[in-house]
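Revision sheet: structure tokens.
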Amino acid sequence: MLFTLNAHAVLDIEITQGEEGALPIAIAPFTWSGTTPLPEDIAAIVSADLHRSGRFAPLERDALPQQPKEAKDVQFQLWRAKKIENLVIGKVISDGKQYQVQFQLFDALRGTQLIGYNIPTPPNQLRRTAHRISDLIYEKILGQRGAFNTYVSYVTVEQDAQGNRRYRLSVADSDGYNEQNILTSKQPLMSPDWSPDGKRLAYVSFEMGRSLIYVQDITTGKRELVAQYSGLNSAPAWSPDGQRLAMTLSHEGNAEIYLLDMRSRNLTRVTRNPAIDTEAAWSPDGQTLVFTSDRGGRPQIYQVSIGADGTVGREKRLTFTGDYNARASFSPDGRRLTMVQGNGGVYRIAVQDLVSGKVRVLTSSRLDESPSFAPNGSMIIYATESGGRGVLEAVSVDGRGHQRLGVRQGDVREPAWSPYISN
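Predicted:
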């Protein structure tokens, strides 16, 4: 995906806790025979990707026992002595128009090649190719699709010397690079949600003095106002087929969940309860919505089935652990929910197994919010506070791997991880 908008700052990523038992791996520097320096260090990007996942422990470059250029140069006994299980080597060739990025992944213990690829790459897409390489390595070794070649959206809030706030809706690569400004506003921006094809964002803007829901094309910047009903317009959530938006509206008096058909613009009311119902999220099969409701006295998570013909089933409460559960969303396989769980004024990110009902708290901070699964379900990105300002963090679904993403100025909040985006 190529953005036409201007690039801004880089999100700083800090690995705050790695997974125990992370797999040792070595990524040798990719060779390059050009007369000018290669614009990107492919090996360094791949190493950083794998390290961020919490599942790998890449060997530091200055600790490599050799830096082989070709497969014939690899001395596997040296890597086995270092207890390195896997080794990556590569090279970059230019034909004057584009790069050919070649790499090989070896099982260093057995001395065999696992995979090898040649990836044609335009000059401005070297970072993306590096993320593709990381995905291929991750999948080959772990048997699960990687999520490095994806994106995150988020809202940044900055304050000038006069105390005026500026809100920016931004998109960046999953490693925080190539930040693109989607929208700037003097009024709050909230709740970005990716369309299933990854080409659009739905979000809430207060630029007209009240909450309205927009849909914006990420590449062209073209946007459309889709919900401007009287009262509240909030919490948009795309259906898996991209044909409907679930949202919270109060134009009939109370905050309820509705479905907006994106073609006909017809509304279907989902909930009917005197309580506040909000923050709907779809199951991957599009047959279920979960939402937050205080109908039991405190915010908890409920679910309701949605038929193909728009019929609405009976509502059912899902959460019973903790005195506050909100902002739930499904894992990509539909087996788990992530949510914000509150106890005694402390709000943390939790995961609930939908079969057993078992809940696991993944974080240890006090004011966590807005959790969002990676498209492979391996990690969850969320917003929290550190040093008096908002930052983004990510945690592995088992709670063992942690990383922090922050900008040099302002607060970061409202993260959403993109789906997989096809070329």
